[in-house]
Recover the amino acids of this structure.
């Protein structure tokens, strides 16, 4: 109880410090503040926490000396007082943050949400690969807000994400495209260890390992190499969603601390590897295409696939390009791959609601 009391006191002091700093350091912007406040609705019933916070943030951001620090301060106070972040994040309970992208299209739960077009476009990719003797397996990733719905303030969004995922899985099966149920694997592993990071969009190594195991169980890929997993040094990670709340200087003081990730790498065990003994380890029976869930070695997905499948994995996933651009680039070069590899396409379902997903290549974005 004593620790909780201290934490509560700190949270109450933070907004007091913020506005004390504002009074002390910003005498010169009183006219701008008064002008902004005068533009707010006179009817108290029309005011909202979000409107007030956004109005003040706009003034501080443009007028305040030391404005970067002040904006971080405003963001921290907004999070503590109202449980809100800036555009780009949805604040959940107990320090859990969710990407706003997962809630795109949620207002119209009955809409197709991109599933139909997604199936049509993926079918074209599957046929192109099939013509080259290559097999496609879709690995759809569920929304973090679906898997960790207990930390949402509104459960309806999780139900919408769950239905969209189920519709996508069913449509893939109806189109006779191989698909791995990553959602089931993540939910099964969730009681043992977090499968998504609290303050980041991405999964944890534990989540990646669970999905790799599900792929191995259902893909019928029979490898001949025994891989050994090796622990790498732990990495302290500032979640990519924290920046939509405040900056690194203040995040720990409001409970948004860095998270620790324990990555692993995979290497062939010379004693147990037939391919290594024959000196023929240049081929790649498996190709991994996808987003930063696959490309970023912090999550160790490629390593876990090699260990689970017993096969070398050629990882052509890219960070910041979404799921479609890396696949299109792979299709341009896939004929150069020796043999007839199985192609795993890691595909976060939240991208289906992106209006321009299948159009011109989108600009590089943070994932």
């Amino acid at each position: 109880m004593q620790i909780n009391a201290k934490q509560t006191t700190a949270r109450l002091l933070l907004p007091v410090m913020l506005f004390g700093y504002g009074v002390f350091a910003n005498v010169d912007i009183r006219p701008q503040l008064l002008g902004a406040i005068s533009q707010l609705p006179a009817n108290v019933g029309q005011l909202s926490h979000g409107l007030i916070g956004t109005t003040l943030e706009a003034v501080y951001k443009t007028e305040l000396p030391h404005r970067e620090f002040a904006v971080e301060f405003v963001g921290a106070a907004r999070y503590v007082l109202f449980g809100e972040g800036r555009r780009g994040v949805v604040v959940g309970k107990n320090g859990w943050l969710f990407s706003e992208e997962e809630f795109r299209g949620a207002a119209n739960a009955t809409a197709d949400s991109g599933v139909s077009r997604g199936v049509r476009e993926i079918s074209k990719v599957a046929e192109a690969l099939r013509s080259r003797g290559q097999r496609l397996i879709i690995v759809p990733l569920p929304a973090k807000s679906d898997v960790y719905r207990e930390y949402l303030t509104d459960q309806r969004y999780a139900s919408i994400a769950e239905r969209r995922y189920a519709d996508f899985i069913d449509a893939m099966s109806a189109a006779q495209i191989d698909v791995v149920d990553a959602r089931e694997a993540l939910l099964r592993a969730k009681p043992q260890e977090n499968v998504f990071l609290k303050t980041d969009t991405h999964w944890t190594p534990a989540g990646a390992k669970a999905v790799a195991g599900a792929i191995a169980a259902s893909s019928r890929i029979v490898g001949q190499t025994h891989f050994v997993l090796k622990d790498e040094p732990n990495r302290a990670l500032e979640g990519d969603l924290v920046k939509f709340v405040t900056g690194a200087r203040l995040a720990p003081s409001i409970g948004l601390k860095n998270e620790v990730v324990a990555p692993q790498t995979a290497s062939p065990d010379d004693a147990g590897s037939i391919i290594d003994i024959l000196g023929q380890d240049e081929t790649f029976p498996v190709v991994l295409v996808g987003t930063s869930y696959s490309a970023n070695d912090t999550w160790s997905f490629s390593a876990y696939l090699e260990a689970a499948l017993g096969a070398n994995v050629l990882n052509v996933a890219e960070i910041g390009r979404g799921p479609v651009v890396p696949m299109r680039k792979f299709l341009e070069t896939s004929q150069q791959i020796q043999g007839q590899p199985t192609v795993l396409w890691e595909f976060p379902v939240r991208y289906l609601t992106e209006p321009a997903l299948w159009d011109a290549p989108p600009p590089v974005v943070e994932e």
